[in-house]
Amino acid sequence: MTVRTRLLQQVFRSLRQATSRVESVSKAALEHPTVTLVACAPQQSKRMPWSCLGYGFAAASLVTVASPLEASCSPAVAAPQTAGVDLSNAGMTAGKAKLQVIFVLGGPGSGKGTQCAKLVQEFGLLHLSAGDLLRAHMKSGTPDGNMVAEMIKQGQIVPSRVTISLLEEAMLKGGKQQVLIDGFPRNEENRAAFEAQTGIEPEFVLFFNCPEAVMEKRLLGRQEGRTDDNIETIRKRFKVFMESSMPIINFYDAKGRVRKIDADRDPEDVYADVRPLVEALQSFAV
Ligand SMILES: Nc1ncnc2c1ncn2[C@@H]1O[C@H](COP(=O)(O)OP(=O)(O)O)[C@@H](O)[C@H]1O
Ligand SMILES: O=c1ccn([C@@H]2O[C@H](COP(=O)(O)OP(=O)(O)O)[C@@H](O)[C@H]2O)c(=O)[nH]1
Predict the structure, then answer these.
(1) C-alpha separations of 282 from 13, 97, 227 in Å
(2) Rounded to an integer, what distance in angstroms lies between the CA atom of residue 205 and that of residue 101?
(3) Which one of 24, 33, 97, 281 counts the least CB within 10 Å of its CB?
């Protein structure tokens, strides 16, 4: 038998195994209709059952489908080998690793995106910028997309339903155990809805503390063509940050979960304080 034939046989064997795993997920899911799982179109789901997302990863990683894959599943069903990450924060599940989420908060222009990029480069975590997800969504041309465009232009906070649905979808697609959620939650509605809907609580909150004058200067120099980086909207965003987002930071601070970073320094100096916090978390990753 030639090497080529042997390789082809291996490929076919893997494909057969993959297909049977997907079939067993679907079959098990249909037999246990206790919760709804929407693996490929979570924006259509009312509530994402994170305890079931292990199955979602298995299905999503094995099948590339344009249409929504909808199924029902019970957490009691044995998970297939490929379901490596349990997105439930309810606790560790045998054989599966717990999702670890870090909220990255700070005023507009405090350097959240810049520091997240460095963390991704060094540690390979999944970086989800709520603002980037919303900006992509606004290009969809849907009524929701248009509403998002208008709210961003006005510096207002988009309703949780839209943002959480985008975050859920991205977490599912990303399929990583450690996730940086950048720029979310921005108010109490965001925080409470995210926790209620996903059951996820952050490991900690990275808070980039920066004077407004410094942030203003950075934003005016950002040059990314954003509709909200103009002085009028920047001032509105500062006000929204102080009134709506600071209470969230205070909420987590009272729980001892905030890691406050002085962000008014060179990016490298800021990163020198940020990296050990995330590095420490790496040692808990399974
Ligand atoms: N520590 C820093 N010092 C100077 N400029 C910075 C620093 N961090 C980020 N910037 C710049 O400031 C602007 C805003 O940074 P960004 O990371 O996009 O902030 P945020 O995500 O908090 O809005 C960008 O143009 C970025 O290059
Ligand atoms: O969870 C979020 C994140 C962002 N936004 C909107 O997106 C804008 C830009 O947010 P981003 O985090 O991208 O930038 P920042 O204001 O922190 O520079 C905000 O002013 C809000 O209008 C929102 O409504 N909810």
Answers:
(1) 35, 12, 37
(2) 9
(3) 33
Gap between the Cα atoms of 184 and 248, Å rounded = 10
* Residue 184 in contact with ligand 2 by CB distance below 6 A: yes
Gap from CA of 113 to ligand 1 centroid (Å): 7
Structural domain boundaries enclosing 58: 3-84
Residues 75 and 131 in one domain: no
Q: Cβ(134) to ligand 2 under 6 A?
A: yes
What pTM was computed for the model? 0.76
Between CA 220 and CA 174 the distance in angstroms is: 32
Return the pLDDT at 18: 45
Alpha helices, DSSP H only, in the chain? 3-31, 53-62, 112-123, 130-138, 143-153, 160-174, 188-198, 212-220, 231-240, 246-254, 267-282
181 has binding-site annotation: no
Instruction: Choose among 248, 35, 36, 72: nearest CA to 160.
Output: 248
Residue 86: strand, helix, or coil: strand
Reported ipTM: 0.99
State the number of CA atoms in the 13 A half-sphere of 238 facing the CB: 19
Measured in whole angstroms, how far is the alpha carbon of residue 227 from the centre of its chain?
Answer: 24
Same domain, yes or no: 105 and 246: yes
Q: 37: CA distance to ligand 2 center in Å?
A: 28
**Contact criterion met (CB below 8 Å) for 109 and 267:** no
180 lies in the same domain as 68: no
Query: Quick check: 47 and 197 in contact, CB under 8 A?
Result: yes
- Torsions phi, psi for 101 (to 5 deg): -115, 135
Q: 111: annotated binding-site residue?
A: yes
Q: Which residues of the chain have pLDDT under 70?
A: 1-96, 284-286
Domain stops at, among 58, 84, 110: 84
